[in-house]
């Protein structure tokens, strides 16, 4: 009979082994990706777009000056909305990390689809849950192992140029609600005041 403590030790060793070997293998960095996708977006520099209303058209494709076969391992493309540095300041939850698994620059999916070797585009209505911030768009190509292998973005390497702004609708709705609340409270008070004055006049 195998003692349970032996099984425990064995599974512990097994977990450690796989944990270290596979964990180390999976650490992939943004700098490992080839910048071979071209990405263009419909908003012009500094354009202000409204969440829930406006649309963004993203076009992407393989940079035609890349060597033949560059896209041979591309299986899937994922296009995401990414925070620009100005909207990442003092916000650890949007921080850019060199390690892909930890990177929080791009948090909103625009579209994911199988890769085809052609210019493609997608028109996206900005989701209502997108927070007010300054953004750019990044497309990533994935291999058959579902790893990022290449990218392209609508800005430069420093995320400095060609940025656009999205204005969330929630903020506006909240202020409208507050206004409505204040006005209805005001009208109730007014009603009572008039009622009181009328009563006094009659008395
Ligand atoms: C395509 O790649 C070349 C060489 O790397 C680069 O100079 C050029 O700017 C790229 N074109 C686009 C549209 O990104
Ligand atoms: C988007 O793709 C379609 C189909 O390939 C094409 O006809 C259209 O011209 C493209 N639009 C833009 C804005 O690139």
Automatic annotation (TrEMBL):
<feature type="transmembrane region" description="Helical">
    <location>
        <begin position="174"/>
        <end position="197"/>
    </location>
</feature>
<dbReference type="GO" id="GO:0042128">
    <property type="term" value="P:nitrate assimilation"/>
</dbReference>
<dbReference type="GO" id="GO:0015112">
    <property type="term" value="F:nitrate transmembrane transporter activity"/>
</dbReference>
<keyword id="KW-0472">Membrane</keyword>
<dbReference type="Pfam" id="PF16974">
    <property type="entry name" value="NAR2"/>
</dbReference>
<dbReference type="GO" id="GO:0010167">
    <property type="term" value="P:response to nitrate"/>
</dbReference>
<keyword id="KW-0534">Nitrate assimilation</keyword>
<dbReference type="InterPro" id="IPR016605">
    <property type="entry name" value="Transptr_NO3_Nar2"/>
</dbReference>
<comment type="similarity">
    <text>Belongs to the NAR2 family.</text>
</comment>
<dbReference type="GO" id="GO:0005886">
    <property type="term" value="C:plasma membrane"/>
</dbReference>
<comment type="function">
    <text>Involved in nitrate transport.</text>
</comment>
<protein>
    <recommendedName>
        <fullName>High-affinity nitrate transporter</fullName>
    </recommendedName>
</protein>
<keyword id="KW-0732">Signal</keyword>
<feature type="signal peptide">
    <location>
        <begin position="1"/>
        <end position="23"/>
    </location>
</feature>
<keyword id="KW-1133">Transmembrane helix</keyword>
<keyword id="KW-0812">Transmembrane</keyword>
<keyword id="KW-1003">Cell membrane</keyword>
């Amino acid at each position: 009979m195998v003692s349970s403590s032996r099984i425990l030790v064995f599974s512990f060793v097994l977990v450690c082994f796989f944990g270290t070997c596979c964990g180390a293998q999976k650490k992939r960095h943004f700098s490992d990706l080839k910048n071979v996708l071209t990405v263009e977006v419909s908003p012009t520099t500094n354009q202000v777009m409204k969440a829930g209303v406006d649309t963004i058209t993203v076009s992407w494709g393989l940079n035609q000056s890349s060597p033949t076969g560059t896209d041979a391992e591309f299986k899937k493309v994922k296009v995401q909305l990414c925070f620009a540095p100005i909207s990442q300041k003092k916000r650890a939850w949007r921080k850019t990390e060199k390690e892909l698994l930890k990177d929080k620059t791009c948090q909103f999916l625009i579209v994911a689809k199988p890769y085809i070797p052609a210019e493609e585009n997608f028109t996206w209505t900005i989701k209502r849950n997108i927070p007010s911030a300054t953004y750019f768009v990044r497309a990533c190509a994935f291999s058959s192992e579902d790893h990022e292998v290449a990218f392209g973005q609508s800005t430069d390497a420093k995320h400095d140029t060609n940025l656009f702004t999205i204005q969330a609708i929630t903020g506006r709705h909240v202020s409208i609600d507050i206004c409505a609340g204040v006005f209805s409270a005001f009208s109730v008070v007014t009603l009572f005041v008039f009622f009181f004055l009328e009563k006094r006049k009659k008395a």
